[in-house]
């Protein structure tokens, strides 16, 4: 049976985007994010974080630094009652990456590669899934993958076809729609 998914961008959705966040002391959770993920679990969504991490490619921090932080983040979600099923990340950048990280790839949003990999790994039904992002690249990736509900927390007020929400708490309403 195919699974419903809640896809979350990281910087700007899960945490305040302070630029190349890679340590616990830099990480500030966005209010309402734990409640959103807990509600998603109650409604039988699997929750995934899908995040571009060009800071790795640029040499600002390592993949080990990234995973140390993300293990702590996922532990905090589990403690709050809403587990993160898996974290997908792209360390590449087509222009600014160092060495093996400087490349065009299918995983860097706006490409849908991370979402498509999640669908292969977990049999995701995009037609019953939700993506919450704060940038146009998030919405483009969700649309390219066929995610049915795109929720946008960014500054551009009329990005189509996304639904504008002010916070993760506002996004909870879209998990509670009839048929979800």
UniProtKB/TrEMBL annotation:
Keywords: Carbohydrate metabolism, Cytoplasm, Hydrolase, Magnesium, Metal-binding, Zinc
Nucleotidyltransferase found in the keyword field: no
Single GO MF descriptor: metal ion binding
InterPro entries per the UniProt record, alphabetical: HAD-like_sf (IPR036412), HAD-SF_hydro_IIIA (IPR006549), HAD_sf (IPR023214), Heptose_bisP_phosphatase (IPR004446), Histidinol-phos (IPR006543)
Keyword Hydrolase belongs to the record: yes
Active site (record annotation): 9 (nucleophile), 11 (nucleophile)
Pfam families membership: Hydrolase_like
NCBIfam families cross-referenced by the UniProt entry: GmhB_yaeD, HAD-SF-IIIA, Histidinol-ppas
Cofactor(s) the record lists: Mg(2+); Zn(2+)
Its EC number(s): 3.1.3.-
PANTHER family xrefs: D-GLYCERO-BETA-D-MANNO-HEPTOSE-1,7-BISPHOSPHATE 7-PHOSPHATASE (PTHR42891)
Entry binding sites for Mg(2+): 9, 11, 134-135
Site, as annotated: Contributes to substrate recognition: 108
Predominant localisation class: cytoplasm
Domain of life (superkingdom): Bacteria
Any one GO cellular component localisation term in the record: cytoplasm
Entry's Gene Ontology BP terms: carbohydrate metabolic process
Location in the cell: Cytoplasm
Residues annotated to bind substrate: 9-11, 17-20, 51-54, 108-109, 135
Residues involved in Zn(2+) binding: 90, 92, 105, 107
Name listed for the protein in its UniProt record: D,D-heptose 1,7-bisphosphate phosphatase
Organism lineage string: Bacteria, Pseudomonadati, Pseudomonadota, Betaproteobacteria, Burkholderiales
């Amino acid at each position: 049976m195919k699974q419903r998914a809640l896809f979350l961008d990281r910087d700007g959705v899960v945490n305040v985007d302070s630029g190349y966040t890679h340590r616990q002391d830099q990480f500030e959770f966005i209010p309402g994010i734990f409640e959103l993920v807990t509600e998603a679990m109650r409604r039988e969504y699997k929750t995934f974080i899908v995040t571009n991490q060009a800071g790795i490619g640029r040499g600002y921090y390592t993949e080990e630094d990234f995973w140390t932080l993300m293990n702590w983040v996922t532990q905090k979600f589990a403690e709050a009652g809403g587990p993160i099923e898996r974290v997908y990340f792209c360390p590449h950048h087509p222009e600014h990456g160092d060495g093996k990280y400087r490349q065009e790839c299918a995983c860097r949003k706006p490409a849908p590669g991370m979402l498509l990999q999640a669908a292969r790994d977990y049999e995701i039904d995009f037609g019953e899934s939700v993506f919450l992002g704060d940038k146009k690249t998030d919405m483009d990736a969700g649309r390219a993958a066929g995610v049915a509900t795109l929720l946008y927390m960014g500054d551009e007020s009329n990005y189509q076809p996304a639904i504008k929400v002010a916070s993760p708490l506002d996004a909870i309403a879209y998990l509670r729609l009839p048929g979800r």
